[in-house]
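Protein Record: Sequence and Backbone Structure Tokens
======================================================
Scope: a single protein chain, as residues and as a discrete description of its fold.
Tokens: labelled as protein backbone structure tokens, with as many entries as the chain has residues.
Position: the record begins directly beneath this header, with no further notes in between.
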Amino acid sequence: MDTRSNRRAFIAATGAIGTKALAGCLGSDGDGVIGIGTSEGGANQETTNALQRGLNEYGEVAQISALETPGSAANLRLFDEGESDGGVSSVMDYRAAQNEEGEFAEDTLDNLPQQVFNQIEIVMNFWTREETDIDSVSDIAEQDAVVWAGNPGTGIRNTTSAAWESLGFWNDWEVSDLDIGDAPGALEEGRIDVTLGYAANGSPPPFFDEMMSRVELRHVEMDVEVDEYQDADGVAYIEQTEIPDEDGDLGDNENQIEDAWVQANHLFLGEHVDEQAVYEICEISHENNDFIREASDSYPDHTDIGRMTNNFMDDVPIHPGAEEFYQENGLM
């Protein structure tokens, strides 16, 4: 399988799975730039950079800068410490911080940002090198395979561990803590046997593109009976779905039934961030979406304003600037 067909197989196995579902001036650094925490090498960094491109071209008030962090949870900590104006974080991590659970149980947060819009919906699967004997999830523990599921503390890692721990698998696996930048090489060299792969808004992120260019991969099937795993907030679940072939037909496609676990990620900004700036961020994400998506096809399709509030948490405040935008467009 060449690189292009490798990538097509991945997109076929993920793309059809849908989810249910400034201090002083504008920013905390006082220079008018809104600092947004993003995960190093991840989809939320890529999509935030794309949004920055749109604001640089069309914005009159809002300027943003992507701040690099180890992951989704770290983005919330950075905000709590006053080192950023917000971040892109998973709903699961936000709930954990809000409820003082998981890694926030002992080191709690005093301040949390507000919802602006849904920035990423990530659909995740496991993949292995073509030459391994790993065909299904049950083979992972039986063959003492090494699993890479994202950097510790990232949203993809937290969601994956929660989903598979709930199903009784996670604690039986040897899970690698390698950095995302080292994972493609480790997979190629055989130090990792199973890797997490994902599509962010239907497109694989750079690290997985690199994996697919270096290694021939195939999907690891789920061989456990599960109708649906869903956590209390509906943000991490596993579903089985029919996957169309490259022509859009269901037919006799070897990837006809796939399984995935899903994570929602929002752009969160502090209440102190200027309302007009946040309104403009929402407006440009909607009105200039095609221009933004030229920089990243992982950026969400916000031409449909309704998608901007997908997976919003009912009990978490929406930033006043975003709320005004949604009200003016008939969403609230």
Observations:
- The CA atoms of residues 303 and 318 lie 20 Å apart.
- The radius of gyration is 20 Å.
- Residues 7-26, 242-257 have pLDDT under 50 and may be disordered.
- The chain has two domains: 3-16+121-264, 34-120+265-328.
